[in-house]
Amino acid sequence: MKLRTTLLSAAALCAIAPAAMAERGADGELKILQWQAASTMNPYLSSGTKDINASSLVSDPLASFGPDGKVIPRLVTEVPTAENGGISADLKSITWKLIPDLKWSDGTPLTADDVVFTANYCMDPAGGCAQLSKFEGIEKVEAVDPLTVKVSFKEPKTNPYQAFVGALAPILQKAQFEKCTGAAASSCTEQNIKPIGTGPFRVVDFKTNDVAILEANPNYRDPAKPAFAKVTLKGGGDATGAARAVMETGEFDYAWNTQIAPDVQAAMTNAGKGKFISAYGGLVERLEMNMTDPSPDLPDTERSTAKHPHPILSDIRVREALSKAIDRAALVELGYGEAARPTCNLVPAPEMFASDNTGCLKQDVEGAKALLDEAGWKDSDGDGIRDKDGKKLKLLYQTSVNPIRQDFQAVIKQWWNDIGIEVELKSIDASVFFGGDAGSPDTFQKFYADVEMYANEWDGTDPQAYLAQLTCEKAPKPENQWQGENINRFCDPKYDELVKEMLTNADPDKRAAQIKTLNDMLTKDSFVVQPLANRARFSAVANSLGGVEMNAWDSEFWNAADWTRTK
């Protein structure tokens, strides 16, 4: 089978930049408001989109995904394919050729040894790498010569564009991180907040969960870029305030993730200072059901771990009842308007991978009550809350602080109250919730609650690594610094086996069918993941900021090197 991708040479990439390109640093300061503040600049230690975006300003992968989802070269001369010999005929290896004379931001040369080191860094089982699924199925990564890297797979790899591709998998400098491998990874504070990179900017100052100050990388590979001399990446506040700072007051140039109500969007647009930009990809707002017991009565080393199954949610009838009680169309209308659409799928796009799974779209309150009856949960004392074996049916439901999410919580709580479930709500500062601090009890990875709500997605148009995150061994636990990717602790050997088959299936139609089956196993077959809405990426951009192109398949800041001041 031949794999096809659109190839863009380094020269072609330059050609798509704005015609009137200023010299490096000529446009002064770029001010970005990312109200979910960055907590690290190392995406290998965080699954939070806020941290991955921030890192992408500083650190590059070998290749990226463009707005059309196609792979484009970043640090390499071209994208390897079967046609150009970069992918072996047996699909068991891919070979990358680095652009000669590339330099790190400290002026030292980037070599194949840095790429090999990055692979070993993430694949170290003691390191708790948050992007381990990107390296799934790799047998070895080797430096053929200083500018050539060969990645060999254990089995034929249908989609080899995972490791080192996209903002989730940038290259780390070996010299800076070689003492930060394994269990030492999370303790290397200076390296994790000030990585030496090859991106358009480098970190000058970083205050965790607050602000990052960056400056133009003096050794960036294009001498005319970036146009901005300085970047202030400010965190804090909320989505509404962030949007207002661009659309109404003009204090900032870009506001990320402006989840605000449709009527508020319209009013802000009328101010005439900026515009909202959006793009649909795989971003899904969903509920995660904790399959393990988060009880504070357990030791911290055993809470939300496989040692203790969840006493309530281990019953699929309860999980299905929770899903049936929800009116997804009403949620979308309440929170997003035209910026989202109801979905039952964790993988809603591209169309070839989207399951014909629509059963959750119709609310069924009576069906939910019947399932709880069947599971033995009855209101024995008439207080409106079901109980069983002397235990009340009570759930702790957490999410990050955001007006739309709090609205969702309030409405979903009422629906669950209506079927006899007591619900406690918890809202956590987004910078903490999506952070990677292994010592915090409030991260979404640690999951010290029964149900939690958030949204994330994969990079590129192929969800293979995204679905591979849900295999048994990737559950967060103390042994991996609570950095595993299997947030809900779902564990099904049949799922794991199908993931292995999907990763090596060379038949595109059969592989698409397997992806749909994996999606269904997580959603309509088990209700462990309960999708609510396929959200568009939605951010605010000042009219004076040029070159911005929304990308649903990679970091939103994927082409920040091309951004300019237009007036």
Largest sheet data: 11 strands, mixed
Percent in helix: 10-25%
Q: Please report the number of helical segments.
A: 15
- Head-to-tail CA distance between termini: 50 Å
Radius of gyration: 23 Å
pLDDT averaged residue by residue = 93
Give the strand tally: 20
Portion of residues in beta strands equals: 15-25%
pLDDT below 50 for ≥5 consecutive residues: which ranges? 1-21
- Global shape: globular
**Structural class based on helices, strands and sheet pairing:** alpha+beta
Summarize the structure.
The protein is an alpha+beta fold and 567 residues long. Helix content is 23%, strand content 20%.
Describe this protein's structure:
The chain is globular and about 75 Å long. It contains 15 helices and 20 strands. The protein has 567 residues and is of the alpha+beta class. The N and C termini lie far apart (50 Å).
Topology:
Elements: H1 10-15, E1 29-33, H2 49-56, E2 63-65, E3 71-73, E4 93-97, H3 112-123, E5 138-145, E6 148-153, H4 174-177, H5 189-193, E7 201-207, E8 211-216, E9 230-234, H6 239-247, E10 254-255, H7 262-269, E11 274-289, H8 316-324, H9 328-335, E12 340-342, H10 365-374, E13 387-388, E14 391-392, E15 394-400, H11 403-418, E16 422-428, H12 430-433, E17 451-456, H13 464-468, H14 493-504, H15 508-522, E18 529-542, E19 545-546, E20 564-565
Parallel strand pairs: 1-9, 1-10, 15-16, 15-17
Antiparallel strand pairs: 2-3, 4-6, 5-6, 7-8, 8-9, 10-18, 11-17, 11-18, 12-18, 13-14, 19-20
